Amino acid sequence: MDLLTELANLLGAGQVLTGQDAAPYLTDWRGRYTGAALAVVRPGTADEVAGVVRLCRRHGAPIVPQGGNTGLAGGATPDAEGRAVVVSTRRLDRLRALDTDDDTITVEAGCVLQTVQDWAREAGRLFPLSLASEGSCTVGGNLATNAGGTQVLRYGNARELALGLEVVTADGDIWDGLRGLRKDNTGYDLRDLYIGSEGTLGIITAATLRLYPLPVAQCTALVALPSLESAVALLGLARAGFGAALTGFEVMSHASLDVVTRAFPDQKLPLGPTPWYALLEVSDSESAAHAQERFHGVLQQALEQGLAQDAAVAASLAQSRALWHLRESISAAQSWEGKNIKHDISVPASRIPAFVAATDALLQAAIPGVRHVTFGHLGDGNLHYNVSRPPAIAAADFLLRQDEVYRLVHDSVHAHGGSISAEHGIGQLKRGELARYKSPVALSLMRRIKQALDPDGLMNPGKILP
């Protein structure tokens, strides 16, 4: 019996997609990669996922796990050979448990992130992972890429928010590690091995996640800054003044917000032009009055010390959302403007000003007139260092220089002690770059782990490892 027939017998014919029905699953979110597949399957339980894996293994068919298909590194797109089976987890969308005594929520991998946030909020709790794509990305994808987002400064990446996992292994077994324990010192941490592995070791089918108390009050402000050095100094002042209450610290260049206001004229910038802006958010567990007093006190210090030139403090939830909407619209605005060369990098926060100054200069020397759309999570050292074409160069000609730009930026990142991927993963996009910047020892260990857990090499081949 052929594989397609066996998959249809296992899942039902309606959950095995081929031809045009499969097409929406074969191109990544950015439209950069388009692959081919034998089929796209949509299992509805972990047992069905395990059955799919066992069938694929018996037939020697590659397996490409896919969540919301919102990744930015091509990690969930099959290659062009057409032999792979794409395993969509979107039907794994159930809330399995919510425990307010333990502050945990157990959800399946296909649950949309925003839905998980809503379930937590309805129970009087906060699930703090927050991304621009939270209305469509899924928990499984967030964990597979160890997603970051805007509140890493306070709550950590997806890895820090996951207490336990359920995983279908490359053998088609189910590992049930859904215990909501804060302490479990019983050998190798399998949970952390699967998180960030981009589906190359197994398929995450469910997770037990940390919840937190809902903050009593939040304060948000957009701050005008004269320089990136001032942004780093303001971050230090905010950390000292707010401690753990500082939940967000985003930095944005003037070019970043300028493209937003041009692309979306209904979005208004409440401050005048300045080289850099910072978006601060504080979450207080005591009272609104306490939050506002601390918030205004730190902002006043920043103004007095010359770190800040001006500040717009949100007076309502609507104003706070409008400020965050400016930040979250940068990527969409860049898409409106045209193709650009994106980088998701991290550098120690103290070295970010030097990195940006040096890399800007190198790019200007290589491609005069290039525009720098730089923004990101300064609190955890993660910058989206995006490069837009000069008006004098045609888009197609600019994209032909993409490899040159990548090399220049990534070499500078490496020289400043950083990483070429902060939160988007490696996928296909940076697979070739990994060999240049990872040590031979690290790559050898990674290959040995891959060989041990996926000896047939069927789990998401062509991703991460060069």
The count of DSSP E runs of length 2 or more, i.e. the number of strands, is 19
Give the C-alpha Rg: 23 Å
Tell me the overall shape. Answer: globular
The helix-and-strand class reads: alpha+beta
Determine the fraction of residues in helical runs and give it as a percent range: 25-40%
N-to-C span: 35 Å
Which sheet architecture does the biggest sheet show? 8 strands, antiparallel
CATH fold descriptor of the largest domain: Uridine Diphospho-n-acetylenolpyruvylglucosamine Reductase, domain 3
CATH architecture of the largest domain: 2-Layer Sandwich
Average pLDDT number:
94
Return the CATH class of the largest domain. Alpha Beta
| Low-pLDDT segments, ≥5 res | none
Number of domains: 4
How many helices? The count is: 17
Task: Give the DSSP E fraction (strand runs of 2 or more residues).
Answer: 15-25%
GO molecular function, one term: FAD binding
Protein name: FAD/FMN-containing dehydrogenase
Domain FAD-binding PCMH-type: 33-214
InterPro entries: FAD-bd_oxidored_4_C, FAD-bd_PCMH, FAD-bd_PCMH-like_sf, FAD-bd_PCMH_sub1, FAD-bd_PCMH_sub2, FAD-linked_Oxase-like_C, FAD-oxidored/transferase_4, Oxid_FAD_bind_N
